[in-house]
Structures are given as structure tokens and as C-alpha cells.
Amino acid sequence: MFHEVVDGRGAGPDVDADEPAAADLLAAFETMVSEAAASVDGDRLVDEVGLSETDANAVRDGDVAALSLADAAAVLAAADPDRDADAMVAEVRDHLLMGMATAVLDVDAIAAKIDADLTGQEVQQALEGRTEMTLGQLAEILAVIERRKP
Description:
Elements: H1 22-38, H2 42-47, H3 53-60, H4 69-79, H5 85-103, H6 107-113, H7 120-128, H8 135-148
Helix pairs in contact: 1-4, 1-8, 4-5, 5-8, 6-7
């Protein structure tokens, strides 16, 4: 779902598939998640999704950069019962790992090219799901991978 914004299948601002910018990807993520959050009752965002009240309000206002990929997927799943949050997260991770292989990138190369303060090891842990990845980090990592793909 999140990786589809590069292909033009996601919601939000147009993203240049040849030269995606992290800011454009994040803007598309913000649109997608805030629209989904707006369609879900605020109590559900807290009770079912597990967001804090502060995070639920921030998401509704479009502030999603610090939101974890898992929480963002849970918001999308709450808005659409045909979506499964865990499957969305797994699909994004698979897309990133396959993109790295296609672009011939390793985690250290990605870490060197992103603004997020992550080491190669931390990028690897985020990609593998051993640590949380924020939507801001996802936007940066995805932009690097997509720009390098042949």
C-alpha cells in the first residue's frame, strides 16, 4: 500500500516514479493516513488501533512522519475492513528488500543517503521489523531505493 504511491496507485500528491523525493512520498503517506483516520471514529483509533489520544489527533491533522509503519497500517485497516495491517507491513518490507536487491543497494549505502539519523544496522533492523520504522524513515528509504532501481 505505502510503496504503491510511487507507481501512482496511492492517494495524495503526484510522486515522480523516476525521481521520487522523500518529501513527496511523505506527503502522499500523510494524505492516505489522515484521510483514513478521518473516516474512523476517534475512540476506535485509541481503543482498537492502539494510538494514544495525542497520536490520534496528530494523525487526523496529517502529522504522520513520526507514526510507525505498523500504526499507520493499523489506521488504514481500521478504515477498510478488507485490509490487514500485518499483511500491509509485510508487503512494504518485501517491496523494500526486493527493491534493494534490484537496485544493488545495501543497508550501509541507504543509511549514507538518508537524512534520518540511522546507521546501516538500524536500517537493517527497521527493514526486518526488529525495530519500528516511522513513515518519515520509510519515505526516505523508499526514495533512495526507487531512485536507484533500473
